[in-house]
Amino acid sequence: MQTIEQKKCLASIALFGEISKKNYDIYITLSIFIRYLIAQNKLYDFSALEIKRDLSTSFGFSIPENVIKNALKRFSGEVILNNKRYHVVKKVDLGINFDERQIEISMHQANVVENINKYIESKYKRLLNTTEKEAVFNSIYNFLLDGGYSTDIYTKYISSYVIENSENKELIASLNIVKEGVLLFSGFQYSPEEYSKNTWNFPLVLYFDTEILFSLYGFNGELYKTLVLELIELINKVNKKSLKETSVKIIKLKYFDEIKNEIDTFFRAAISIIKCEDRPVQRTQAMKNVINGCETHVDVLRKKALFFEKLESYGFEHDTEDYYKLEYHQYNIESKEIIEQIFAEYESRYSKVEMEYGMNLLNKISILRREKKDKFIDAKYFLVTANSMYFELANHSLIINGGIVPAVSPVELITEKIWIKINTGLAPSKVKSFDVILRSQFVVSTQMNISVTKKMAEVEKLYKEEKININQANAVLTELRQYIAISENINQENVEQGIEFTETSINKFIENYNILEEKVQKVESENDRIAEDLKRKNERLFFFEQREEKRQNQIKFVIKIFKRTIVLTLSILFILLVYYINTQRSIGWVSYILYTIGTISSLIGILRAFGIEIKAVFRKLF
Questions:
Q1: How far is residue 423's CA from residue 196's CA, in Å, rounded to a whole number?
Q2: pTM greater than 0.85
Q3: Which end of the chain is more exposed for a tag (fewer CB within 10 A), N or C?
Q4: How many whole angstroms separate alpha carbon 126 and alpha carbon 158?
Q5: For 585, what's the count of Cα atoms within 13 Å in the CB-facing half-sphere?
Q6: DSSP state letter for 82
Q7: Can you tell me the distance from the alpha carbon of 258 to that of 361, in angstroms, rounded to the nearest whole number?
Q8: Is the separation of the CB atoms in 254 and 207 below 8 Å?
């Protein structure tokens, strides 16, 4: 898109998008803005160059002169061209209250910007200064222009704010209308002749990185797949027409040899997980989706084969060119000294291995382009990625200067460029890639996945360096995998948790695990102490119970002997009494015996009369 003065552009672009919703011919829309300038400035004689200047002054638009000339052709008998000057011959009808509507939009957008400032201040727990507020405004501007691929620190907060307020229809509508205006305004990058052809006729070679390829297959979730598939469908539409007319695809899809090696390494890691090798292995969202449902390594290999078959069906080619040939050296991005300087600047955020890998991919794009290009349609070769590090490297001031087109592009930007040119007939709001909520979810999800991958790599490194043990590594990796599930479904409830995660260092996760482990050990130690103490008390209680039982048994035995003795004594006394009575009465032994039996029978009868069973008495006694 052309350069726009940021302080004026948001309201102007929003108004442009609002007017364009009624008619998607951007030249008719632009002619309405020119009508306003003619009426407001009371112009009767002017040139296209003067209108160009006034558009820039009043709206912040920077539009090619030939585009303005084309828009002036939309005036029906009101303006005529004579000697390269335009003359108003009939009153120009504006048709809308331009000033009032622009003021309303400006006020609403100022309110949105202020609310985002307050939202960021709530996260920082302090007020933003003037410089920071200007940076936030620039970030909002870039967010709406490039979909959040700028690498400033505020992008994720803007995305988070949009997601948390996704049910605020007025806010979302206002942001989407700006995005639609930006999208339609981008049509001015083409000449009027090219724009009117409604066909893509610029050769384009797109090199997808690993994560975008995984997204296309669905390994990174439905959100990513939706965005990439929209681009593929547009490319298929362009190539179908190109093949019919020239028998050649005008847009080619490829991936570098490094990407192929990275994919191979990824599937080898998946196999090691299935084989349950005794070491921590990174499990990103893509890894989780690959290993799920696999019982053996054969299942993983089958998924790998299906993955490459799908890429081939979409028309992807594996680029095996040797880019290290001497003849290519003159096209390298920059000198070794400059690259080392860039690495030193980013070494606190990225490892040298990561940056060397990324710079190697960017260097290949530079070799393919041969020379630096200042127009998208001339650049031809792009690395399609969502990796923020690649964007930072490609857009570094030491690499890109003078309006040079970066070597990298997000999926959405390519989608926009093709959609604008082929004029699909769909309103921008019907294209999911252009929706501000979906883009915000994509930004937060991407940053989360990048953060998960980076943190997992750090855990792997710490484990290999024996700075953490296997238990620490596995525990932290398990916790990190929970955030993969969150990144798949970013919404109002979990977006804040996702943002906090990206700002948390891996050392904090390890520290939390150590604290938890220490607490667990203390609890286990306390439980062991309590168990040992309880064991001792139980043993002591058992000892006293045993002693008491023995004492009770002794008492019972004494009582039993005492009872027996009394019964025996009473029995003897009874017999003696009977004998004595017998001797006094001088009866015979037979009578004595009968008398004794009768007495005993009488005694038993008396006991039974009182409910006492003699057998029970004897059982208790003996």
A1: 9
A2: no
A3: C
A4: 17
A5: 12
A6: E
A7: 8
A8: yes
In the block, which residue shows the tokens 């003065």?
5
User: φ, ψ for residue 409 (rounded to 5)?
Assistant: -150, 140
pLDDT at 4 > cutoff 50:
no
Task: Give the C-alpha separation, 93 to 71, whole Å.
Answer: 15
Dump pLDDT digits (tens) for 172-204.
Answer: 888 888 877 777 776 666 555 566 667 888 899
Closest residue by Cα to residue 413 from 178, 156, 167, 234:
234
| pLDDT per position as a tens digit, 460-483 | 888 888 888 888 888 888 888 788
Give the whole-angstrom CA distance, residue 387 versus residue 453.
11
Length of the chain equals 622
Instruction: Return the SS3 of 67.
Output: helix
Q: What are phi and psi of 87, to 5 degrees?
A: -125, 130
Q: Which of 28-32, 411-415, 521-525 has the lowest mean pLDDT?
A: 521-525
Q: Residue for token digits 């700075």? A: 467
Non-local CB neighbours of 321 within 8 Å, separated by 6+ positions: none
Instruction: Report the alpha-carbon distance of residue 139 to residue 158 in Å, rounded.
Output: 8
Tokens at 344, concatenated: 């030193």
